[in-house]
């Protein structure tokens, strides 16, 4: 049995009074114990923290648990062993910890079919631009560098990514905010970020979204978007909208969308 780690002593933000999944503060558990404790899967968690082992990259996993205390920890070997017993709806987000990027990506590819289409974050230390680019190319939605990123920023980024995923998941139940409806408001095919921006504006149609708000919502790739990049994106999107749909500029405040023609469109 791996040694129990008391993270609250290192990260005061981690509430030591909150029981871990299965009622134990021990997050690092042997494969056999995980298989035998299938009942613990009934307890929902914010996310699943993955690492190559229970001892390597302990500072990365500790930081992630302190930032997202509802999450549980598994090694790749453990999750592969119990994958048949884990309902996909149990996992809302996956944090993959480690600096050995080639090794992590091999594990990550093996798990893609198990964890499904949910947000995936890479937690690293001192990542350079090339490391971030490799992580994004491997399929991660964001990269959290614990040497630079503060926990409030990490939480905000995770929440923004979850909102985008949930927006897509709810397409069949909310046609006005769906990507399908967004596509019907344009005359030509949209690029990925153009579609994401239009969907965001439709979802928040009663609000004025600031440039920083838009940048945060669309920059799950961790590279971010400059204010000028947001303005250029809005400019390109405007040219593709059908008549009667307008993206309005609010001086010093941001952008909103006018959906005067939406009622004429069938969902």
TrEMBL record:
Q: Where is this region: Disordered?
A: 1-25
Coiled coil ranges (UniProt) are none
Biological process, per Gene Ontology = phosphorelay signal transduction system; regulation of DNA-templated transcription
This chain belongs to the protein called Response regulator transcription factor
| Entry keywords, A to Z | DNA-binding
Q: Which residues bind DNA?
A: 162-259
- The answer to whether the entry has keyword Cell inner membrane is no
| PROSITE patterns referenced in this protein's UniProt entry, alphabetically | OMPR_PHOB
Q: Which residues form the OmpR/PhoB-type domain?
A: 162-259
The UniProt record lists the keyword DNA-binding: yes
Q: MF terms per GO, please?
A: DNA binding
